[in-house]
Design goal:
- By secondary structure, this protein is α/β, with parallel strands linked by helices.
- It folds into two domains: 289 residues, 3-Layer(aba) Sandwich (Aminopeptidase); 183 residues, 3-Layer(bba) Sandwich (Glucose Oxidase, domain 1).
- It has 13 helices and 15 strands.
- The strands form two sheets. It has an eight-stranded mixed beta sheet with strand order 3-2-9-5-6-7-8-4, covered by helices on one side. A seven-stranded mixed beta sheet has the order 1-10-12-11-13-15-14, with helices on both faces.
- β2 and β3 form a beta hairpin.
- It is elongated, with a radius of gyration of 24 Å.
- The two termini are 48 Å apart.
- The relative contact order is 0.18.
- The N terminus is likely disordered.
């Protein structure tokens, strides 16, 4: 780790600590009315023991991973998973298990992808099509061309030069050494999520995701279509010849104008070295199947009805969908199994929470939090009565902390809520925000949305790849994750009041 990174991390930790002290001092008077009573704390102990001694996490996760498998949004396998999770909730005696539908514009089914470098020497290529990208028109051949452009204006330098080309747009990613420990997300400054994945080479351009970048993506793809490229190729950024996966259809589930594929890091580095020597020729064939009509997809929902305030709700969430290269164990079968175990344990113990605890398994998370956005829109009248929402979505590592998502108004109360979980290794709730999962949809709707910050394990090395399988599951982390979800939900349900919302932003000065 560089000296500069150490300074940044130290400053971040110090700033977070000072902010926490200030917020706790401000919130202390309100927290006094929300201290958990002895009966709730005794129930917490029972929850932790029940999950530790009688859980069904590994059997559920193995079935989901091996007997159902990949769960791409819009696929038959995802519907099988919806039906199976609904049946499991019913078997546990949880109230009102059901499916709630929303629509996507196109289904997409992976076909085959094969390729090889033809010259200056013949080499096989291992590749996989992006999701929601079309196939090629049979076997296509052409040069591999490095396009160095970060704006539509820079792309104009390549006009008329890309006909039948395979385009690459970045230098190879630098993979960390195999013996380097996974980064600790608690020590990474917010906004520096690139520290969790393969870093780019020094001096390589950094693209920040946002509206401007997405506009460039649309313009770039349209430019490539007009120029008639064969396909766009991307470095997988994974070790051990693993492939990566994401989609090009975005939240609209539209179809990319051009074929696109991930190439293994080893193959991508080979292409880069050959290009430095001179021209490179390749051939590739990709076949995919694209649905031509909208289809219904589903979120699985169940709940434990509140005994005193049933119209007030605490939500536990995880996403049921996965990419289709592996079987979706870490992303996010792990969160699904922990959530289902939380539901089983709470129901088995016969606990009667004051508020309703609702369990939601979202679809469409991988394409842009689509299932949770659809849920929030369909239930927008309920949002003022939802106290809070917690999601887990970083694989099978233990939950280190609860990310507050800048809900500073809840800092003192949340400290009380998670305090009993120190017994299973949870640190205090963290003010470090973290995006990228379904809690964001609720946070944007004004509901305090929280995120389980987990030990990374091998998550980023294997997720979205062929190695996202049941072999990656770590039982101890999953058990602890279920304990965190169940205790957190029960304790929030038992509070005297709904959790406070973020203050409304000040009106713009006229």
């Amino acid at each position: 780790m560089s000296l500069g990174r150490k300074v940044i991390i130290a400053a971040f930790i110090l700033a977070g600590t000072l902010a926490s002290v200030v917020v706790r001092a401000q919130m202390a008077p309100q927290a006094k009315s929300n201290v958990l009573d002895d009966a709730t704390l005794a129930a917490d102990d029972k929850i932790i023991a029940e999950i530790n001694d009688h859980n069904e996490i590994m059997s559920n996760l193995e079935y989901l991973s091996d007997m159902i498998g990949q769960r791409l949004t819009g696929s038959e396998n995802l519907k099988k998973a919806n039906d199976w999770t609904k049946e499991r909730f019913a078997a546990y005696g949880v109230d009102n298990p059901h499916l709630e539908s929303w629509q996507i514009a196109h289904t997409w089914t992976r076909g085959t992808a094969r390729g090889r470098i033809l010259s200056p020497a013949e080499h096989p290529l291992s590749l996989a099509s992006y999701a929601w990208a079309p196939g090629t028109n049979g076997v296509v051949r052409g040069p591999i061309v490095y396009v160095k452009a970060q704006s539509i204006e820079e792309l104009q330098a390549y006009k008329g030069k890309l006909k039948n080309a395979f385009v690459i747009m970045s230098e190879p990613l630098l993979l960390p050494p195999p013996d380097e420990p996974a980064p600790n997300p608690m020590l990474i400054p917010y906004g520096d999520s690139t520290a969790l994945v393969a870093p780019k080479r020094p001096g390589a351009p950094v693209i920040r995701f946002g509206p401007e970048y997405m506009k460039f993506v649309q313009d770039r793809n349209a430019f490539f279509k007009e120029e008639g490229i064969n396909a766009w190729l991307t470095d997988s950024g994974k070790p051990d010849t693993l492939l990566n996966m994401t989609g090009l259809g975005g939240r609209t589930y539209s179809i990319s104008p051009v074929p696109a594929a991930f190439v293994t890091s080893e193959n991508y580095s080979l292409i880069w070295r050959l290009l430095k020597r001179g021209p490179v020729e390749a051939e590739i064939e990709i076949t995919n199947t694209i649905g031509d009509a909208p289809v219904d997809v589903y979120n699985t929902v169940a709940e434990i009805r509140g005994s005193e305030k049933p119209d007030e709700v605490v939500v536990l969430g995880a996403h049921l969908d996965s990419w289709d290269m592996g079987t979706g164990t870490t992303d996010n079968g792990a969160g699904v199994a922990s959530l289902m175990e939380a539901a089983r344990a709470l129901q088995k113990l016969g606990l009667k929470p004051k508020r309703t605890i609702r369990f939601i398994l979202f679809s469409g998370e991988e394409q842009g939090l689509c299932g949770s956005r659809a849920y929030v829109e369909a239930h927008k009248s309920e949002m003022p009565k939802i106290s809070a929402m917690l999601v887990q979505d970083i694989g099978t590592g233990k939950v280190l902390s609860i990310g507050m998502m800048e809900n500073f108004q809840d800092a003192e109360i949340m400290y009380q809520v998670v305090k009993p979980l120190k017994a299973v290794g949870l640190l205090e709730s963290s003010e470090k925000p973290q995006g990228g999962s379904d809690h964001v949809s609720f946070n944007q709707a004004g509901v305090p949305g929280f995120y389980g910050i987990q030990a990374v394990e091998q998550y980023f090395q294997t997720h979205h790849s062929q190695a996202d399988t049941f072999d990656q599951a770590k039982e101890s982390g999953l058990i602890q994750g279920a304990q965190v979800m169940a205790v957190w939900a029960y304790n929030v349900a038992q509070l005297a009041d709904l959790l406070p919302r973020k203050p409304a932003p000040p009106e713009a000065a006229h």
